Each structure stands twice: as C-alpha cells, then as structure tokens.
Amino acid sequence: MWIASKRLHYSIKAGMYEESSEVRSRRRGGIILGDVARHVASAPESGYGTDRQSVLHEITRAFKSEVALPASSVEGGFVGGSGKMRGET
Fold it and tell me: What is the Cα Rg of the chain in Å?
C-alpha cells in the first residue's frame, strides 16, 4: 500500500492465503487490517503522547463508517494471470 498523486494505491496477491495457509483469506484480511490499525494507533503515542487505545477506537469507528458508507468508489481489477489485484481508491 502506498500513496502517490494524492491517491491510495495497493497491490494484493488475491487468494494467496487460500493456497498457502490454514487461515482463509477473508479472515486473514481482518488480521492484516487489525495489525495495520495497531501500528497506526501506536505512532501518535510514541511521538505525541496520544493514548493508543483512544486512537485505535477512532480508527475502528472510522473503518466501520467507511465500510458502511464509502467516501469514494473502488477502482482497479485483476492483472494478468498472476493472481494479483491492483487498484486505487
């Protein structure tokens, strides 16, 4: 995941966990998002003394809101036969 030209871009190897793990992709996606949220919540705590749990709560609230009512559309699609999905929002 990266930001370029004021837009969020990402690359995902769709189905990777279906092929190589006991944890299915749908659950693994939640685990990855949770891990990212904890890292994002920890950054302000170390740099500014912000309470990590408070930031994590706000991230969770914003995530649920964005899933329910997206601020932008999802663009992108599968590229070739590699199983990778590329997109930008």
Answer: 15
* pLDDT (0 to 100) of residue 25: 64
Q: Is the dihedral of CA 75, 63, 4, 1 positive or negative?
A: negative
Q: What is the three-class DSSP state of 9?
A: strand
Tokens, residue 85:
């999905």
Which H or E element spans position 85? Answer: strand 84-88
pTM beyond cutoff 0.90: no
Q: Who contacts 27 (Cβ-Cβ below 8 Å, separation ≥6)?
A: none
3-state secondary structure of 87: strand
